[in-house]
Amino acid sequence: MIDFGLLFAAFAAISWGTFFVPVRKVGIKNISQLQGATSIGVLLFSIPVGYFWGFEIQLSGLVSGVIWTVANLLALFSVKLIGLAKTSPLLAGAGIISSFVWGTVFFNETFDSLILAITAIGLLLIGLQLVVNGEKGLIQKRGYFVAIAAGLIGGTYIIPMQVTQTLQSGFFSSSLSVFVIGISLFLFARRFIKKETIAGIISGSLFNLGNLAVLISVGLIGITIAFPISQTATLFAVSWGMVYFKEVIHKRGIMRVSLGALVILCGAALLAIA
Q1: What is the pLDDT averaged over residues 186-193?
Q2: C-beta separation of 114 from 230 below 8 A
Q3: pLDDT by residue (tens digit) across 242-264?
Q4: Which residues contact 269 (CB under 8 A, 6 or more apart)?
Q5: Quick one: average pLDDT of 79-100?
Q6: What is the mean pLDDT of the segment spanning 148-167?
Q7: How much of the chain is in helix, strand and coil states, percent to nearest 5?
Q8: How far is the C-alpha of 21 from the C-alpha of 240, rounded, in Å?
Q9: DSSP calls for 160-213
Q10: What is the pTM of this model?
Q11: Contact 213/4 with Cβ under 8 angstroms?
Q12: What does the alpha-carbon distance between residue 180 and residue 65 come to, in Å, rounded to a whole number?
């Protein structure tokens, strides 16, 4: 069961590390429109899953959807300000701290070796710091602050469903909540550009694919291990930012980001065996 839990967490990392790419590609001009289009993709993906997990309306799921929507709006704003390569590590680092604290303090999740687990978290955070400092220059501090806030909030979005043990039955409710808020923003934006709408729908589908995987993983191995491993999504997001979008162009920056990525992988591997 643990092997499957780790596998699903890794799959979530790949999906989450890619889900910002479509909206980054078209450019983040109107956050409300992109969030609205993303919510359409989230709901569309949840419908076939609902045939297996049910279409129940769970309060916990609705609350989780609200939390995620707030976090994603902040994340989109951060990507607009400082780019994907710099936003993603901060999202992951703050998310790891948030989920680790909730898992150990509130849910009393334990490790075979607490020292090993703490060391793993330390490595993850060091790696994330290396990544975020991969390129020096004029950086908008507001973007960093917003990214950290998004990560701290996003790291808690699973909590309502985990507390009420509705990780599966609450999946559709969380997607519905995201959709209701998102479609309201979409209509309010009064901006219906086809390519941006399609990009948002693809992003929403990718997010919910990762969401599905991480919920399964949390059910198998707990949030303390599953969520930090899923946050290695930053490796994929940073790679997209550096290689495809050319957000880090200097040799020193590329080396620093690459070193940070390696440290992140070591931390994730250590946490998996802790």
Answers
A1: 80
A2: no
A3: 888 887 667 777 787 778 778 87
A4: none
A5: 82
A6: 90
A7: 80, 0, 20
A8: 7
A9: HHHHTT-TTTTHHHHHHHHHHHHHHHHHHHT---HHHHHHHHHHHHHHHHHHHH
A10: 0.83
A11: no
A12: 10
